[in-house]
Design goal:
86 residues; two-stranded antiparallel sheet; alpha+beta; globular; 27% helix; 22% strand; single chain
């Protein structure tokens, strides 16, 4: 799904598309996503932007299997290409 371009609040990469992991609905405020450049877990805001999760949100999201699988795949791919994620 194409979305208005927004910067990743961690690495600054422009994010302009999303792929739903578990639903085909557009993201709502509070839904999580993962940056494909830095593997940061991000939260959609009501105004259409992205933010880093609060400590409380991060503790819950860390245990989400879909988030963990996506993050692991991004990290594996980066390492295979000789990139180090920070």
């Amino acid at each position: 799904m194409i979305m208005d371009p927004v910067p990743c609040p961690k690495c600054g990469s422009t994010l302009d598309a999303i792929t739903a992991v578990s639903a085909d609905d557009p993201p709502q405020a509070g839904d999580a996503t993962v940056c494909f450049q830095c593997a940061a877990t991000l939260i959609f805001e009501a105004a259409g932007g992205l933010r880093l999760p609060t400590d409380e949100e991060a503790a819950v999201l860390w245990r989400e299997p879909e988030i963990a699988r996506v993050k692991a795949a991004i990290i594996r791919g980066a390492r295979a290409r000789g990139r180090d994620l920070k």
